[in-house]
Amino acid sequence: MSDHEAPVTPVPAFEPPYYAAVFTSVRTQTQSGYPETSARMEELVQDVPGYLGMDHAQTPGGLAITVGYFRDAEALTRWRSDAEHRAAQQRGRAEWYESYTLHVAKVERSHGFVRE
Amino acid sequence: MSDHEAPVTPVPAFEPPYYAAVFTSVRTQTQSGYPETSARMEELVQDVPGYLGMDHAQTPGGLAITVGYFRDAEALTRWRSDAEHRAAQQRGRAEWYESYTLHVAKVERSHGFVRE
Question: With contact defined as beta carbons under 8 Å apart, do B45 and B57 qualify?
């Protein structure tokens, strides 16, 4: 969710089934408080049992995509129910997001490639 | 898959179930032929029956994420079996990608937000 560091490797494939939460967004001009909240959410999600990792990419001035990976539906429910996370989502709708879509999906197959 | 235009709105939520193919990648220094092939793939996938749309974001010099949305598993199989697509994937492993991960997932729930 934050732009303060560019990951250099994609999150690897896990053994299916697991869950992916795909969050695609375009932000408003009003970004006060966003970087701090985003960093805090990245920190907080690590404590969720069953959290596996996160990929993030953002085209400058364009679309941002964050994909969170979770071991099972229970892990996602825990993250979705987190009070601090819910408050951040509310503020996101009030101030930070022009538009967004969330797709919650069960991964059925996956594979990875790493150059030797 | 291409970087030649920044989409200004996320692909909207569809009625579940549908499929999302999440492709996360880091590219090599060797990008000869990549933009043309990427543009061609974007064109080609539109002809796949059941193709719903695509989101793409790339952090400059960092991670790229492409998410393709498909009505059902059959649509994904069609796209996966396309001969021109398979040739592009081979060339990608040979030249363009440092590493990538593909997660194929069935969307169970989704929702969107658009500022008024």
Answer: no
Domains of chain B: 18-107 (3.30.70.100)
**Alpha helical stretches, state H, B10-106:** 34-45, 73-81, 83-91
Of the candidates A8, A93, A113, which has its C-beta nearest B113's C-beta?
A: A93
Q: Write the residue in A10, A63, A105 that is nearest to B100 by C-beta.
A: A10
Task: Note the pLDDT tens digit of each residue in B28-76.
Answer: 999 999 999 999 999 999 999 999 999 999 999 999 999 999 999 999 9
Residues of A in contact with B112 (CB under 8 A): 99-102
Angle of the A83-91 helix axis to the A73-81 helix axis, nearest 10? 70
- What pTM was computed for the model? 0.93
- The answer to whether A20 contacts B103, with C-beta atoms less than 8 Å apart, is yes
* Shortest Cα–Cα distance, A47 to chain B (Å): 23
> pLDDT tens digit string along B95-111?
999 999 999 999 999 99
B88 token code pair:
């592009």
